[in-house]
Amino acid sequence: MSAEKLKLYQVGTFAVGNRLLDPDQRTVQARTERSNTLTSGHRACRGCGEALGARYALDAAMRATEGRLIAANATGCLEVFSTPYPESSWQLPWLHSLFGNAPAVASGIAAALKVKGRTDIRVIGQGGDGGTLDIGFACLSGMFERNDDVLYVCYDNEAYMNTGVQRSSATPPAARTANTKPVGDDPGNVFGQGKSAPLIAMAHEIPYVATATVADLHDLEHKIERAMEFRGARYVHILVPCPLGWGSESSVTITLARLAQETGLFPVFEAEGGDVVAVSKIRRRVPVDEYLRPQRRFAHLFGDPPRTDVILQLQKIADRNIDRFGLLEDS
Amino acid sequence: MRSQLEGSLAVAKAVALCRPEVISAYPISPQTHIVEALSDLVRTGELAPCEYLMVESEFAAMSAAIGASATGARAYTATASQGLLYMAEALYNASGLGLPIVMTVANRAIGAPINIWNDHSDAMSQRDSGWIQLYAESNQEAVDLHIQAFRLAEELSVPVMVCMDGFVLTHAIEPVELPTQEQVDAFLPTFDPRQVLDPDDPVTIGAMVGPEAFAEVKYLMHAKQMQALDLIPEISGAFSQAFGRTSGGLVHAYRSADAETIVVALGSVLGTIEEVVDELRTEGVRIGAVGVTCFRPYPLDEIRAALQGAKRVVVLEKAFAVGLGGIVGQNVRLALSGLPVQVYDTVAGLGGRPITRRTLRTLVTDVLEERLEPDRLAFLDLDWKLVERELQRLSDNRRSGPHAENILRDVGTVAASAHGGPR
Description:
The complex is a heterodimer.
Chain A: H1 3-6, H2 49-64, E1 69-73, H3 77-82, E2 94-96, H4 102-115, E3 122-128, H5 129-134, H6 137-146, E4 151-156, H7 197-203, E5 208-213, H8 217-227, E6 234-239, H9 243-246, H10 253-263, E7 269-272, E8 275-279, H11 288-292, H12 308-325
Parallel strand pairs in A: 1-2, 1-3, 3-4, 4-6, 5-6
Antiparallel strand pairs in A: 5-7, 7-8
Chain B: E1 2-6, H1 7-17, E2 22-25, H2 32-43, E3 51-54, H3 58-70, E4 75-79, H4 81-86, H5 88-97, E5 102-107, H6 121-125, E6 132-135, H7 139-156, E7 160-165, E8 173-177, H8 181-187, E9 204-205, H9 214-243, E10 251-254, E11 261-265, H10 269-282, E12 287-292, E13 294-296, H11 300-307, E14 312-317, H12 327-335, E15 342-347, H13 357-368, E16 377-379, H14 384-396, H15 403-410
């Protein structure tokens, strides 16, 4: 029995109701024995998608490894809000070194565990989109290329939120950031730039690559647990909306993550050995407007007159993803 | 066992005898032979257990060493020049976290202009990175310093850089005494980390620290280096007891006890300096030499004691602080503060320019005959004509072109014509 086939979900959220599931299939978070790896008391903003994503990802990884897990963390929001001196929210061995080296630090940890014969202990590297896609990208590619036994998780909130919302290579076109302001002829972030880290990860033909969002936490947990079934380099890319950077209500973090998937702007899929093996189908296709409108970073598209041309360009990106990954039920 | 070995191979073998558990390295001349030899030793199983990571950059090399060391593995890497700069951010991180990584630096110039040959610009640029810096005078000392470095690093939980002159030492083949595995095992205890990433006892390493405690954490780095000033001679003493030869320590004095003139230097050039000292001694010149083996921590008291009897001190250094002058020289002045000793600062051997006995004799004669001024930066063997010609070009022509190309053309290395120059 799999969650996918149940078709029993709560109206409005599409989340599978835990109590309707077989106990074996309930989320890690629903279990009293969950590890609370990123425990309460940290300083994340209200509605922080990254805190939510990290909590689910790490608790799932802890469950999969029976608590034998070490984390290497890049500099960024996750690092800052979790370890204000002299406090720490981490209930696992956790090392923060630098902004751009978390994958290499994780490789070093994995090498040390291997040489000590402690391959029962697993390694997770984690960082935001800036630390992963930009400054840490060489180290990430090196870790993939060597196929080091590391699961790297990127919490993608689509900009440098920790330094005050500047553009990263994960920032979507047209989005307002502190250095792509809605001024000039082409307001917001430029079109035709940026990169897909999951596709580049797949090009390394590493054992496992997946994307997920904090809208489907059950799926996120599944992907982390699945990733832990493999040895070698693995990559999970999680979309984590940021109320501060996106200019959205803290109550709509999960809604926005779901809309990102349901529009096709953020394809959710799994790949093994470089090939896509599963995609999360869009259950209710929505136009990109519905996703863009609640976010102040796109407010300039809905002025008077609205920039329907730009919205159409964004719709084309969504449509291309839908075609490319076969995101519709009948495709 | 005494054998005829290339310096790099000797150091690789010495490092292997120290049983590093994780080696992460990225190739850069003139470090390559060291990490190639270690790769061989790991592949053949001669060095086991050991994980060898062939990383994509020096930044990753140091980062992987950080991860490995924090997981309780003895970690080693080697680099040089641009590579050392490329890992600079991680160097400060390793020392700030207090991780006892040992690294060989095969000293090489820093570009631009790009240059693969020896000087000390690389290591000197990282003198304040919180790493202990030891400078080897010979390949034998390079071997011995590595064995001592692991013990020192792990005792204090501080990273240690062993500097050996690129090419001059790394590629020189000379007799080296390599200890046995039993000897090294008896001298170097297994790594017992002060902090370790362990799921049975989880800790947070690398937390954010604000103004309330940052200074204290940083001060501890200094406090540990001050402890190293006691520990380094202690380890050197234990080493000579165990291995029957003297290596390491803070400073090496050579015929300096009654010397009026003392030459101070770091690294392999000391060999040439000592020969010149011998020559001049036979001619009645009261001259000696002091080698600074440990440059960080800076052995202020020992250097003062070694130099205070002299009338003049000639500092010969293979790097300089652009816009100021000598680096070692400034440190020597600090050690001699308040004493009536004149300090002459001479930069020599940049980018691999040979420092010969002849030029050293000229330098000493110039100092003795007061042709050099104390406290003024001097360059040994600088071709002033070339410099003046280029300065003239700068003043004559707005688009005077790249310095290196112009000067190479002037010396006849490049045949093509300069921007606006004679054709």
